[in-house]
Amino acid sequence: MRKYLFLLLYFFSFVTLYSQQRDTLKLIFIGDIMQHGPQITSAWNGEYYDYSDNFQYLLPLFNYADFVIGNLETTFNGPPYTGYPAFCAPDDFAKALKEASIDILVTANNHSFDKGISGVVRTIDVLDSLYINHTGTFKNFADFQKNNPLLIQKGNIRIALLNYTYGTNVGIPRSEVIINVIDTNEIRDDISLAKSYNPDGIIIFFHWGEEYKRLPNNYQKEIANFCIKNGANYLIGSHPHVIQPMIKNVLDSANNVESVVYYSLGNFISNQRNMHTDGGAISYIEFTKTKNNLQISKSGYFLSWTWKKLVNDKYIYINLPAWEYDRIADEYPDDKAAMKTFLDSSRNLLNKYNYGIDEYYFDKDNNKLILLKRN
What we know:
The protein is α/β, with parallel strands linked by helices. It has helices at residues 2-20, 37-43, 59-64, 91-99, 116-129, 141-147, 184-195, 218-229, 333-353; strands at residues 22-33, 67-72, 104-106, 133-135, 137-138, 150-154, 157-165, 178-179, 201-207, 234-238, 243-252, 257-265, 267-269, 279-290, 293-311, 314-321, 358-363, 368-373.
């Protein structure tokens, strides 16, 4: 009798342990990754393009995440290298993104076709050579089938990622290359296709909205509602070059179904220096899965500022997260004031309009997130 009682207790203990197993997935999203002409010029060291300073202070945070996903707003079409209005960056910049622990790049934006068909194809080839996953633009239909949607998996959590742009600056290609453009019929079909892979969730990274507007327009809201209604509950936005509000909603409290919309993350790194364009937000979403139930355990953001630091008559571009503010020494009073202005104005906007999305900073010494303010 004792033997059977022991086996029964062991069985219930195993079932209880199994039911309490939790998988987690930590995702970071970054906004517009730009390469204006002055950035390219400043990176040249006489032998190659050196971007090693750009992301040094973000490495601890990026290594904390399982995947870092960013919006690549340039092409890699080889020399000559150009900034605005037709972007083409050195391959060394792609290598720097890889070394910064950026895992995935979405490539559908208004500059995707800046260098034509060759720009689309060569950009994908460069990313493939560095084992950087990507979606949004495709060399051909076979590439489209392989990477649309892009599946992200860690443990028992699987997420499908889609990417669309409102258009390009030079029209839509009429050739075998494909650029995903915002079209509700295509989005509906792609969401349906994504569901066929049985993901735990669907994320869409949009290039949308009006440049330099700090609030989403009605079109963004309509597209967001359409996507959520059709089953894509997690939306990330770029293109305005400024931060826009972030919203978290509970769609179905009984089944713990939630949605998040980050309307615009602003600039991750760029040469833009006008008010509100000299920095951006870094999105953090942490998913937890128990049995078959996926929940958002954390949804937040970090603020970062592009420090255009003058050293020996040469500019260095550094993405400086808010928690590294004191890296700006007192010998740079104008830079300190500019970063403070960006942080203050961003917090004023987000504290007013955000719902359910909180600001964090990263404690690199203890490798953990610290909540700054709850919205």
